[in-house]
Amino acid sequence: MIGPLLETERRNRIRRFLAKKRKLIQKEKYQYECRKTVADKRLRIKGRFVKPEQAFKILGLSQADLLDNKTIQELLTQYYEEAI
Q: How far apart (Å, rounded) are the C-alpha atoms in residues 27 and 22?
């Protein structure tokens, strides 16, 4: 006996609990697809979101240089890879 339960009952309850926990962990990490797409489009430096103005300042570009986010993100990653 372990508390009010038999050893086999306790094992069964623990097994059920762990199965539920594994099932929850295997779910998708995000709930809303639109939030994920918006987050993927935003500029990042070392995983943190930055505003386009901050990125322009870091790279030494002016806002007159019309670049899309993908190009700016590539320049930021190159800039920080060279800095390391």
A: 9
Q: Kindly tell me the sign of the dihedral angle through the C-alpha atoms of 66, 69, 74, 75.
A: positive
Cα–Cα dist 23/1, whole Å: 29
Q: What single-letter amino acid sits at 78?
A: Q
Q: 3-class SS at 23? A: helix
pTM: 0.48
End-to-end CA gap in the chain:
59
Residue 47 parent element (H or E): none
Q: Could you read off the pLDDT of 23-80 as tens digits, one per residue?
A: 877 766 667 888 888 888 888 888 889 888 888 888 888 777 777 888 888 888 888 8
